[in-house]
UniProtKB/TrEMBL annotation:
<feature type="domain" description="Cupin type-2">
    <location>
        <begin position="105"/>
        <end position="165"/>
    </location>
</feature>
<dbReference type="InterPro" id="IPR047142">
    <property type="entry name" value="OryJ/VirC-like"/>
</dbReference>
<dbReference type="Pfam" id="PF07883">
    <property type="entry name" value="Cupin_2"/>
</dbReference>
<dbReference type="InterPro" id="IPR013096">
    <property type="entry name" value="Cupin_2"/>
</dbReference>
<dbReference type="InterPro" id="IPR014710">
    <property type="entry name" value="RmlC-like_jellyroll"/>
</dbReference>
<dbReference type="InterPro" id="IPR011051">
    <property type="entry name" value="RmlC_Cupin_sf"/>
</dbReference>
<protein>
    <recommendedName>
        <fullName>Cupin type-2 domain-containing protein</fullName>
    </recommendedName>
</protein>
Length: 203
C-alpha cells in the first residue's frame, strides 16, 4: 500500500473457461473474483507511492494449457494458465514472467507519482481513470487522460498523477499488459536493460 494513503478497494476480475464435455463457454470459479492491491515496488526497498493488482499472468506464448480436464486431456494438463496465475497470488509481481505476459492495474493516489524506472518489457496501456503526465528520461512529457492509449517500448519513464480532486477523488488508474522483449541495443553495443532504481540516480 502506498505510504500514508488508503488501501485501494479490490478490483473484480472474471475468468472464463470451457465446459469439458460440450465445449461451451462457462465462468471459472477456480480463482475468486476479487483481486487485492499491493505496493508497487519502484524503486525496490523504498516506501511505495502507488499500488497494483495482478489481474492475470501467463508463462508461455502462445498461451498453453487452456484445455479443460476431460477424458482426452488429463487433470494435470488442464487449465494450466489458471493454475499458474493462482499460484502467483500469494506473492504477485506486477511484471510478466520471462516468456509470458501480465495484466496489471496500477493505482496512483492523489498528488503522487511513480518514480523514473525502466522495465525490459513492451507495455500496452490505457488510462482508465484520471489524468497523468508521462515523463521520459529525455525530459519529454505528454499529458494523458482517461481513454488514452500508450505503448512503452522498453523505455525509461515516470508517471505523475495530476488528476483533479473532483475527478475520481484525484485517483489515477492505468491498465497495463506487460510483454517480454529482446534486449534493446544502442549504436555502441550498450544494452539498455531493466532498471527500477533510476529515480535514485537523479538525487
Amino acid at each position: 500500500m502506498a505510504v500514508g494513503q488508503r488501501q485501494p478497494e479490490p478490483l473484480r476480475r472474471i475468468i472464463t473457461t470451457h465446459d469439458s464435455t460440450s465445449g461451451r463457454a462457462i465462468f471459472s470459479d477456480a480463482v475468486g473474483e476479487q483481486v487485492s492491491f499491493t505496493g508497487f515496488p519502484v524503486p525496490p526497498g523504498k516506501p511505495t507511492t502507488s499500488d497494483y493488482a495482478l489481474a492475470y499472468s501467463t508463462t508461455t506464448f502462445p498461451v498453453q494449457g487452456l484445455s479443460p480436464p476431460n477424458s482426452a486431456n488429463p487433470e494435470s494438463k488442464g487449465n494450466l494458465d489458471i493454475e499458474h496465475y493462482h499460484s502467483l497470488l500469494s506473492d504477485p509481481s506486477p511484471l510478466n514472467p520471462p516468456n509470458g505476459t501480465s495484466c496489471t492495474i496500477i493505482e496512483v493516489p492523489p498528488g503522487s507519482e511513480v518514480p523514473m524506472h525502466r522495465t525490459a518489457t513492451l507495455d500496452y496501456g490505457v488510462v482508465i481513470d484520471g489524468t497523468t503526465e508521462l515523463v521520459l528520461d529525455s525530459g519529454e512529457k505528454r499529458l494523458m487522460a482517461k481513454g488514452d492509449v500508450f505503448v512503452q517500448r522498453g523505455t525509461a519513464h515516470a508517471w505523475r498523477n495530476i488528476t483533479e480532486k473532483q475527478e475520481n477523488s484525484g485517483i489515477l488508474r492505468v491498465f497495463f499488459v506487460f510483454q517480454p522483449i529482446e534486449q534493446v541495443r544502442l549504436e555502441d553495443g550498450k544494452i539498455v536493460g531493466q532498471d527500477l532504481n533510476l529515480s535514485l540516480c537523479e538525487t
